[in-house]
Amino acid sequence: MNADPKVTRLREIAWRRPLTGAEQAELRAWLAAHPEARDEWELELALSRVVKKLPDAAVPSNFTARVLAEAQRRDAAQARGRRRTPAWWWRTFLPRAAVAAVLLVTGLSIYRARERGKETLTTVREITRTAPPPTLALDDYDVIASLSTGPGADEDLLALMQ
User: Fold this and answer.
1) How far does the chain reach from its first CA to its final CA, in angstroms?
2) Tens of pLDDT along 75-126?
3) How far is it, in rounded angstroms, from Cα 141 to Cα 139?
């Protein structure tokens, strides 16, 4: 409904009691100036009548004490929540820092292994450049090949087994 202070005041009065003659005249004058609000006003009045017909709800005898206890409980929970705000650090930052540390250590390990591999490859290249080719074993190949390798196969035994 319109936020006109006169109408708001009349609506609140109509919730509590029937309007007096002067208040009804004031309302009729306002509705004549604003005919688009008539349906909404009638709906508001009908709703107020229906709500007035409802029976009063039975309220327990300790209702006020329970409401105050709940309010105190919520205040205490909010105070505990404010005191625990540094705990967010442990729940959010620490796992992220641990993951970052693992990634950093893994990356450094891989980098170091690659550097060691490069050093090893460089060392092998230097050795192969400076060392003479291993021809010593090939110089005596004919002599080694002519040496007997031991007793030969027993031809009689092989013949018997066949």
Assistant:
1) 118
2) 888 877 666 556 666 778 888 899 999 999 999 999 998 888 888 877 777 7
3) 6
Structure tokens belonging to residue 151:
């007793």
Yes or no: say if 19 and 26 are a contact pair by the CB < 8 Å rule: no
Q: What is the C-alpha to C-alpha distance for residues 152 and 133, in angstroms, rounded to an integer?
A: 35
Both structure tokens of 93: 């930052």
Length of the chain: 162
Structure tokens at 98: 């641990």
CB–CB of 48/15 below 8 Å? yes
Q: What is the pTM of this model?
A: 0.35
Closest-CA residue to 4 (of 17, 29, 48): 29
Strand (E) or helix (H) holding 150: none
Domain range summary for the chain, segments of one domain joined by +: 1-54, 88-132
